[in-house]
From TrEMBL:
Top-level division of the source organism's lineage: Eukaryota
Domain NAD(P)-binding: 15-233
Protein name from the UniProt record: NAD(P)-binding domain-containing protein
InterPro entries: NAD(P)-bd_dom, NAD(P)-bd_dom_sf, Polyketide_Oxido-like
SUPFAM superfamilies from the UniProt entry: NAD(P)-binding Rossmann-fold domains (SSF51735)
Length: 253
């Protein structure tokens, strides 16, 4: 991502009560960064991250389709000014196969993008935020991203989430903002193995919605902790770098 105005960027996290984004949250707070988090259930965060220990953390209660809550998550106050955060990380995903969950990624991203426009109209200052989204392997319509043995699994069990993730990706790519889309392999729990164990595949976005494969890595799984670590190190720490801007990054072991 392009360098923001400071080496200590402000963040807005969506989907941080668990999984990859929680790992991003933990590392960002340990580094002293200011973070806004939208949480449907704030109590899932307040116990582990008490305000007395992390005064730079602001937790906004609400869900990803709540425009007002999303707008509050995207801004912070500096003196008498309201400013947009510099980096947005979304790890929103389906929690069940209920009807309302089937479009949660697409709806959530559309709400984030429209809320950026709305906060601008209301006078929020600062550069446009950079967007990092966690998608999934299997979203490519141009090439195989998963091992042959996993194709039936993705076709049966991940088909509906993939449809939603693809629509989310399309919204991000058409947003006009600077972005990076992550497609990790099957996510598992457990302690970090370290970035030395992570293999990276890269696609660069082209005009017309097509992608050019720059490098390819196919694997079975990766731990959520290592996805969060990669996001923090490559896209958040020090404001991130330009290397991953406009690219779809596959992560696996």
């Amino acid at each position: 991502m392009s360098l923001p105005t400071s080496i200590s960027p402000t963040l807005a996290l969506f989907g941080a009560t668990g999984g990859c984004c929680r790992a991003v949250l933990h590392r960002s707070l340990q580094a002293g960064l200011s973070v806004n988090v939208l949480a449907r259930t704030p109590s899932k965060l307040t116990t582990e991250f008490p305000s007395t220990e992390y005064p730079q953390l602001t937790i906004i209660g609400g869900n990803i389709r709540d425009a007002k809550a999303v707008e509050r998550t995207l801004t912070f106050t500096e003196g008498t000014s309201t400013k947009l955060v510099e980096i947005i990380v979304s790890g929103v995903g389906m929690r069940s196969f209920g009807e309302s969950e089937r479009t949660v990624c697409e709806d959530g991203m559309n709400c984030i993008l429209s809320s950026i426009t709305e906060t601008r109209a209301e006078g929020a200052e600062g550069d446009d935020p950079k967007i990092v989204v966690i998608s999934t392997k299997g979203c490519s319509t141009e090439r195989r991203e998963v091992p042959v043995l996993m194709i039936p699994v993705y076709a049966v069990f991940v088909r509906i989430p993939i449809i939603d993730k693809r629509k989310m990706e399309t919204a991000v790519r058409k947003s006009g903002l600077k972005w990076c889309i992550l497609r990790p392999s099957h996510l598992t729990d457990g302690e970090s193995k370290g970035l030395a164990k992570v293999r990276i595949g890269v696609e660069k976005s082209q005009k017309g919605g097509k992608s050019e494969t720059q490098s390819e890595e196919i694997g079975y799984s990766i731990r959520r902790e290592d996805v969060g670590l990669w996001i923090y190190q490559e896209l958040v720490c020090g404001g991130g770098t330009e290397e991953w801007e406009g690219k779809i990054v596959g992560l696996t072991y």
